[in-house]
């Protein structure tokens, strides 16, 4: 079986993948460099190559965060165990109570 000529032309226009090319084809990630290496082994950052992100002014921002900032963190109590929070048997009991293997 052969691919139709129309399909063959469409395949030629697609980008080459690493699976289609030879063993020396390395595509990379397209990130580029942020500077250059010196002959002494250090790296010098180039400000013109660095990415800059435009952020809007957030001084009068009206939206609130998804998580309430006033929630107290939950403190676990391990006073009923022998070894405290590192007791493996207590962990297995909690796991079974939460629906682990019975």
UniProtKB/TrEMBL annotation:
Cellular localization per UniProt: Mitochondrion
Pfam families: MRP-L27 (PF09809)
UniProt keyword Ribonucleoprotein present: yes
GO terms classed as biological process: translation
Swiss-Prot/TrEMBL keywords: Mitochondrion, Ribonucleoprotein, Ribosomal protein, Transit peptide
Family according to the record: Belongs to the mitochondrion-specific ribosomal protein mL41 family.
Name of the protein described by the UniProt record: Uncharacterized protein
């Amino acid at each position: 079986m052969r691919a139709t000529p129309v399909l063959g032309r469409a395949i030629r226009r697609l980008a080459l993948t690493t699976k289609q090319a030879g063993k020396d084809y390395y595509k990379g990630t397209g990130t580029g460099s942020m500077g250059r290496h010196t002959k002494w082994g250090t790296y010098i950052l180039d400000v013109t190559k660095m990415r800059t992100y435009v952020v809007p002014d957030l001084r009068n921002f009206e939206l609130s965060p998804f998580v309430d900032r006033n929630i107290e963190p939950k403190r676990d109590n391990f006073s009923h165990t022998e070894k405290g929070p590192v007791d493996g048997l207590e962990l297995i009991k909690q796991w079974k109570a939460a629906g682990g293997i019975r």
